[in-house]
Each structure stands twice: as structure tokens, then as C-alpha cells.
Fold this sequence. Notes:
Blueprint: H1 3-12, E1 18-28, E2 38-44, E3 64-67, H2 68-78, E4 82-86, H3 96-105, E5 109-114, E6 128-132, E7 157-162, H4 165-178, E8 185-190, H5 197-207, E9 212-213, H6 217-222
Parallel strand pairs: 2-4, 4-5, 5-6, 6-7, 7-8, 8-9
Antiparallel strand pairs: 1-2, 1-3
Amino acid sequence: MNAVSAENSAATAAPADRLRITEIFLSLQGEARDAGWPSVFVRLTGCPLRCLYCDTAYAFHGGQWREIDDILAEVAGHGVRHVCVTGGEPLAQKRCIGLLRRLCDAGYVVSLETSGALDIGAVDPRVSRVLDIKTPASGEVERNRWENIELLTAHDQVKFVLCGRADYEWAREVVAEHGLDRRCDVLFSPSKSELDPRELADWIVADRLPVKFQMQLHKLLWNDEPGR
């Protein structure tokens, strides 16, 4: 490696105690078990998936390197108990595991929003892992890491974002095949632009599915306003 290449490599290498962060902000948790709680969101940059309905594509690139100590200090400055680590795909950055552990050590109620395409086994057991199983209409169904299901506990949650009836029937079969409702909370959400929430609600009720219907509370309140 020549001097110029070495210099460029050093400049782009990830510092040992840092993560690339898109944003940190205070809002209401809009989804899952902690919906409604004032929460700090730590959004990590980067994602190996490209779901067709993704609403956070701005987190694919950019961001700033932040020291973990600095991240913790900013979280503490918001003065709330709940913290959600999200993305992008947070687990695409290996040091996310350390951040999650330190947030738990600091006494926060911590959740992790992850695509389910990466191994969740190293995540601190104090973290509630919200595993997003990708449906056929997402365009990324082949990326599901099914081995993660065996790692789920009652502390975790599974989410399906559904784009239509075919997705619904597929997800219904996955829940039954893997006994997901006996492992943890299962959440069915309508894709904002592709499925009428009332249709999904009616299907769940008609089939008496052991799942929770949910909508994104923050989008009902603030639409797609950044940082909300």
C-alpha cells in the first residue's frame, strides 16, 4: 500500500470507540410495546437492505462519527428513561453492541429496532429486540435470518409491515409456523401508502389472530417531519 492509499484508508476507518450517527432526538415512541413514552432515538447510519417502503432512506449514507461517551451524554441530557436505538440497520455497525450494553448499564429502558437480517445473538438480553421480519412486498424477504427466531424471548417483539392481502396471508402463516405469538409480542403494521389500516384491522379481527395491530403514532401526529 502506498502512502496515499494508507492515508485514505486511515481517514475512512471507523475509530474504535465511535459510531456513525445520523441523528439523536427526543420524541414520543410511536410503535411497539413502549408506544406513547417520551423516548430518545439514536439513529445509526447505514443499512444493507433496500426495502421498497423504507421511510428512513436518508439514514443510508452520511452521518457523523460520534464517540460513545458523547452519545451517552447527549442521551442523558434529554432527561427521559426510554431509549430506542434504530437506523438504518443499527447492527450493521458492530460497535452498536457496546452502545446497547452501556445504555442498559446506565439504567435506561432500551429497545433496538432491527431488520432481522443480521444476527441478534450478541445483543444484551436487557434490550428489547424489535425484530422486523421482511414480507414479500418489501423486496427483501430473502434477507430474513430465520435463525433469529430461536433467540427470541418474551422480552422481545416481532414486527411485520404489510403492503396488502398477500403480505398479510404470508405473515399469518409465518406466525403460525413458528409459534411466534408464544415467544413474544407480534405486531402487524400497515405500510403507510399501500394498505388501508382499516382493512388490516378487519382482517386481524376476522381471523382472531393473536397479534397486535399498530399504526405509527408519530406519523399520525407529525406526518414525516424529521426528528419527530
